[in-house]
Amino acid sequence: MKRVGQISFCLVPLLLALAIQFLVSVPVFGISAMGIILDGYHSGNSFSEIYTQLLSLWSSGSFTVWLSMLCALASLFLFGFWYRKKLAVHEERTVAKSAFNLWIVLSLFLLAIGLQYVVSYFMSFIGALRPDWMRSYEDLMNTVSDTGSISPVMAFYSCLVAPVSEELLFRGVTQGYAKKALPAIGAVCLQAVLFGIFHMNIIQGIYAAFLGLFLGYVCEAGGTIAIPIVFHAFFNFSGVFLNSFLFYHIEQPFFFLLWLTVGVLLTYAGIFLFQHGLLLRSQAMPDDTRIQGQ
């Protein structure tokens, strides 16, 4: 029963994150609606015109990104404080500033590129089986980037704010508590599933859960939350800025298999180099840069 309670407690961070989204969204929607209604009233606009303006604002990519940014910042402060006060002393087994070397950084970048291929083909396969799921996902992505270009705010959110807040929430707090009730591999799997649920979209949730397995692994093996934060930032950066340079040929079987193989090999190379980098780090790391557990 104690273990069941500990596993159940791992749901609390996710529920709090969803509650934060609600608590932030309600006043944002309310204030924006009040502003448009007052402006429309003074301008003599009709109810239908005001309603159209509201829908246009709330469905715009800039509004969605700013709202996501506010929610992520609120989560960052809450879970950053929680992780630092309750879990960091046990989970941070390596000082963050000494956690990286050239091989580890290179491995995280290769792993991010490789997983872009693997995840893209995996999503395409699922989309072929369930086109309705893919349409829902594409509608969501079109809402976020309705202008067809990447704004500085979206880039800042995707490549910095979201990686930090989500890693503190899932690889920090959730995985930290999950390890109290489960072996490390079970804790990694549990937080990955919850990471997928958090995205509230079937296609996005499936690939987020898949990505979460790798994020949980590098966090556990690397001994600090800083490593999955950097990996997550690399993954989002490559998805936002490098996606147009990656070669995808879903419709041609030969190129499909070719680039899927490239993605798998890059993923394997990233894991291999990561383990090699950890070995070199452990050999070079002085005692005063190690924390409990090493």
Question: What are the main properties of this structure?
Answer:
single chain, 294 residues, mainly alpha, 11 helices, 81% helix, 0% strand
Structure description:
With 294 residues, the protein is mainly alpha-helical. It has 11 helices and no strands. The chain has helices at 2-9, 11-43, 47-58, 61-91, 102-129, 131-144, 152-178, 184-198, 202-222, 226-241, 253-284.
What's the gist of this structure?
The protein is mainly alpha-helical.
Compute the number of strand runs.
0
Number of helices: 11
Could you describe the largest sheet, including whether it forms a barrel?
Answer: none
> Between the first and last Cα atoms, what is the distance in angstroms?
32 Å
Shape: globular
Assign a percent range to the helix content.
over 70%
Low-confidence stretches: none
Structural class given helices, strands, pairing? mainly alpha
Radius of gyration: 21 Å
What string, H for helix and E for strand, traces the elements in order?
Answer: HHHHHHHHHHH
Mean pLDDT: 90
Strand content: under 5%
